[in-house]
UniProtKB/TrEMBL annotation:
Gene: boxA
Protein name, per record: Benzoyl-CoA 2,3-epoxidase subunit BoxA
Pfam families: FAD_binding_6, Fer4_10, NAD_binding_1
Keywords: FAD, Flavoprotein, Iron, Iron-sulfur, Metal-binding, NADP, Oxidoreductase
EC number(s) from the headed UniProt entry: 1.14.13.208
Span of domain 4Fe-4S ferredoxin-type: 6-35, 37-64
Entry-linked NCBIfam families: benzo_boxA (TIGR03224)
């Protein structure tokens, strides 16, 4: 049996037949008839040169297939076919389908690992905006200019977490809250090979640090001996940085101000939640339903965005900032606070519009799962089946690393 293939397609319902992509393709993989513009699966090498010039985004369509759609089939389409459920080549279950997260194998592996804690295939919320992915790759990265690099943790804290703002100039780099970018550190590893890219969650909302600015921010923790985190944390204002992506098609926000959003994180896991909160604040005057944030750190000095978070009104964001090493306060982890809030969380687990997001270090998964197990018992249900059901409907998301 053949391996599944990601096929590059064009959405005929949105395409305006301007043929810009056809001109941009360096290897003539794009052609058209009087009805449709189509991509030849036998030729396309995923160079992405056609993606950013397309004025409609219709060129950024993908399906995982066992047998590529032929040119004739594509030319006859009025709309794109649904993503089919396909079996893995070894017959062990469904292969990754509709929510393709990334085309680069190394990035896809990282994302699959990061989402593994959800217990199955990740799905986007039903109302999430459609993300763009893979617009820039290692062969053709976007080039950003560092606008600022600020330390978020106090000088006395033992962790150095930074807020880095990157200006994208006039490049087309559309992002959604919850997506990540790839950064390839310069230089080579011990065997002389270029380093593999690392992923960083975008911590700004889709319309930029301030509304209508074409920039993104990242929240990066310096790892002792870490190759990429030290490179990023040392970037200076005016430096160039090469970005790939954007990546991620499932860890996204529902486009529904009435959705109940529960966010659980430690450390740099707060990055996507800063973006979620800013998006909600900008979108709805009254913030829609109140979001809940459970955020753990050793001390308040080591908690990124501590000051700005305190200023977000409680009507928009209910904050549970917990510290495991603070002086004169009882030691507390996120799961401890979740259990203190069990009545509220039990109510949320029973509600059909609740979306749960867990982000941060892998080590946090176990405690969070155990807390949910207990809370689910309060409503007479089994956590694993409830979690699986929520995940299947795009309402339970884990991104841990
Ligand atoms: C989906 C996703 C989103 C992410 N988002 C973020 C984010 O928003 N912010 C963030 O900071 N990170 C994020 N990460 C993690 C990030 O991608 C990197 O893994 C992280 O920055 C470490 O990369 P590095 O190159 O600095 O470390 P690497 O060089 O890859 O090293 C990995 C680890 O090994 C240790 N190490 C390396 N060399 C040695 C040595 N010789 N001896 C002992 N130890 C050693 C390092 O200290 C480090 O902890 C994310 C990861 C994923 C998958
Ligand atoms: S990705 Fe590259 S090869 Fe494929 S259609 Fe676009 S421009 Fe052509
Ligand atoms: S550039 Fe985009 S809109 Fe224009 S023909 Fe190609 S796919 Fe269609």
């Amino acid at each position: 049996m053949n391996a599944p293939l990601k096929q590059h397609l064009i959405d005929p319902e949105i395409c305006i037949r301007c043929y810009t992509c056809e001109e941009a393709c360096p290897i003539d993989a794009i052609t058209h008839n009087e009805d449709n513009v189509v991509v030849d699966a036998a030729k396309c090498d995923f160079c992405m040169a056609c993606i950013s010039p397309c004025p409609t985004g219709s060129i950024d369509a993908w399906r995982v297939v066992m047998q590529p759609y032929s040119l004739e089939e594509q030319m006859s389409w009025m709309e794109l076919p649904e993503q089919e459920e396909i079996a893995k080549p070894d017959g062990t279950g469904p292969a990754e389908g509709g929510d393709v997260e990334a085309l680069e194998d190394s990035v896809e592996r990282l994302l699959a690992e990061a989402h593994a804690g959800a217990g199955g295939k990740a799905r986007a919320p039903a109302t999430a905006s459609k993300p763009s992915i893979n617009l820039y790759n290692l062969k053709k990265p976007a080039v950003g200019i560092v606008q600022g690099n600020y330390r978020l943790t106090s000088e006395s804290a033992d962790s150095d977490v930074r807020h880095i703002i990157i200006d994208l100039g006039n490049q087309h780099f559309p992002v959604l809250e919850g997506q990540s970018v790839g950064i390839q550190p310069p230089g080579t590893d011990a065997s002389g090979n270029a380093y593999l890219p690392r992923l960083y969650s975008i911590s700004s909302p889709r319309d930029g640090e301030r509304p209508n600015t074409n920039n993104i921010s990242l929240t990066v923790k310096r790892e002792e001996q870490g190759v990429c985190s030290n490179y990023v944390c040392d970037l200076q204002k005016g430096d160039e940085v090469r970005l790939t992506g954007p990546f991620g098609a499932t860890f996204l926000m529902p486009n529904d101000p009435q959705a109940q959003i529960v966010m659980i994180c430690t450390g740099t896991g707060s990055a996507p939640f800063r973006a979620f909160t800013m998006r909600r604040q900008r979108l709805t005057a009254d913030g829609g339903e109140r979001m809940r944030l459970f955020f753990g750190a050793r001390t308040s000095d080591a908690l990124p965005y501590f000051g700005p978070l305190k200023k977000v009104p409680d009507t928009i964001l209910e904050k549970h900032l917990v510290f495991s090493r603070a002086e004169a306060v009882e030691k507390e982890y996120v799961q401890d606070r979740m259990l203190k809030q069990r009545a509220d969380l039990a109510g949320l687990l029973s509600a059909p519009h609740t979306h749960i997001y867990v982000c941060g270090l892998k080590a946090m998964e176990h405690g969070v799962e155990a807390a949910f197990e207990q809370i689910a018992k309060d409503i007479g249900t089994d956590w694993v089946s409830l979690r699986d059901q929520m995940r299947e409907s795009g309402r339970y998301h884990v991104e841990t690393y």
